[in-house]
């Protein structure tokens, strides 16, 4: 185990898989220079043939990745979540559907790395947190790591998977640090939640960048005598429904912390599942600590009011505790 930044852990996962499998390659805008950080050192090790700079044309290189995956390669595509709208036809009409439409004759082992750079004054065009949209698209796996170890382990699992995976990398977590296994065989399975803190009074399901805020909120509530269980689903498709239902069955209360906008969010889906399948376990109304349903303002003083924080999660916990 070595303490590493979340960003470094992502790069470790990619590098290890590239060393193991020569079919794995990385493509994206300026990846040779590693403008966004996680690809640092990869071009020096793997060269031009496996680290490919692309034009500013997401629909083009998203589609090129689909074609490469269909003929046996394992592309990893770096992009920003805000640029994914340009490549939606390739993501939704091709990557998500091709294996089904071809009757299983083709597999699509492609990973789209969608970096979410919100919270840093990037304004409306560059601050999307779009993972709930892709939860609605059959055929795509949706991954939201919340810790450095999970960043590495889930990246390796995504690259080895034979279906298209979108890895949403939360920009607010990139500089955070955590213990990361050095073992090149370390992976984190999809569909298995991580209970970061055991508790008995209320369950907080925290997604992506909300994870450290939820842990901080749990620490604050512990000082007030409230025992908070913090659960990170790690993957939204597939979702570890059983872990969430079991936790709510134990605590009787649910708060979901979600950096995406609150309408039609991952939080909404999780609360819907609990409402349908664990209603009689609930002792109080569920609460949602999600982003406000607005475009992201450029003003830093306004932007910080949009997202869930430790304080809004604490407020939600207190509401459901009555």
UniProtKB/TrEMBL annotation:
Return the InterPro entries for the record: THDP-binding, Transketo_C/PFOR_II, Transketolase-like_Pyr-bd, Transketolase_C
Alphabetic keyword roster: Oxidoreductase, Thiamine pyrophosphate
Which cofactors does this protein require? thiamine diphosphate
Which segments constitute the Transketolase-like pyrimidine-binding domain? 4-176
- An example of a Pfam family matching this protein is Transket_pyr
**GO terms, molecular function:** oxidoreductase activity
Highest taxon in the source lineage: Bacteria
Q: Does the keyword Aminoacyl-tRNA synthetase apply?
A: no
PANTHER family linked: PYRUVATE DEHYDROGENASE E1 COMPONENT BETA SUBUNIT, PYRUVATE DEHYDROGENASE E1 COMPONENT SUBUNIT BETA
Protein's UniProt name: Alpha-ketoacid dehydrogenase subunit beta
The organism is Candidatus Lucifugimonas marina
Q: Output the lineage of the source organism.
A: Bacteria, Bacillati, Chloroflexota, Dehalococcoidia, SAR202 cluster
């Amino acid at each position: 185990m070595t303490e590493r930044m979340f960003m470094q852990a992502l790069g470790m996962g990619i590098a290890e898989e590239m060393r193991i499998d020569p079919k794995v390659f990385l493509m994206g805008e300026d990846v040779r220079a590693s403008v966004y950080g996680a690809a640092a050192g990869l071009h020096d090790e793997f060269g031009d043939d496996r680290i490919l700079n692309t034009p500013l044309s997401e629909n083009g290189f998203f589609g090129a990745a689909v074609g490469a995956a269909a003929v046996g390669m394992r592309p990893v595509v770096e992009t920003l979540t805000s640029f994914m709208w340009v490549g939606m036809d390739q993501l939704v009409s091709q990557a998500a559907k091709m294996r089904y439409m071809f009757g299983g004759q083709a597999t699509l082992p492609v990973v789209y790395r969608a970096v979410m750079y919100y919270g840093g004054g990037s304004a409306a065009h560059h601050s999307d947190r779009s993972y709930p949209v892709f939860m609605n698209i059959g055929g795509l796996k949706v991954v939201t790591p919340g810790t450095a170890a999970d960043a590495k382990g889930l990246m390796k699992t995504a690259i080895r998977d034979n279906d298209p995976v979108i890895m949403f990398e939360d920009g607010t977590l990139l500089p955070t640090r955590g213990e990361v296994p050095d073992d090149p065989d370390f992976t984190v399975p999809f569909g298995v939640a991580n209970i970061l803190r055991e508790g008995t009074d209320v369950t907080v399901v925290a997604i992506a960048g909300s994870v450290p805020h939820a842990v901080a909120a749990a620490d604050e509530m512990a000082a007030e005598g409230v025992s908070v269980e913090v659960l990170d689903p790690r993957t939204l498709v597939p979702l570890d429904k059983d872990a969430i239902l079991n936790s709510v069955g134990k605590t009787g209360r649910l708060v979901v912390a979600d950096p995406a906008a609150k309408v039609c969010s991952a939080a909404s889906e999780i609360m819907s599942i609990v409402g349908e399948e664990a209603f009689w376990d609930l002792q109080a109304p569920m609460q949602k600590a999600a982003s406000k349903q607005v475009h992201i303002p450029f003003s830093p003083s306004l932007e910080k009011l949009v997202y869930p924080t430790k304080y809004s999660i604490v407020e939600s916990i207190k509401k459901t505790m009555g």
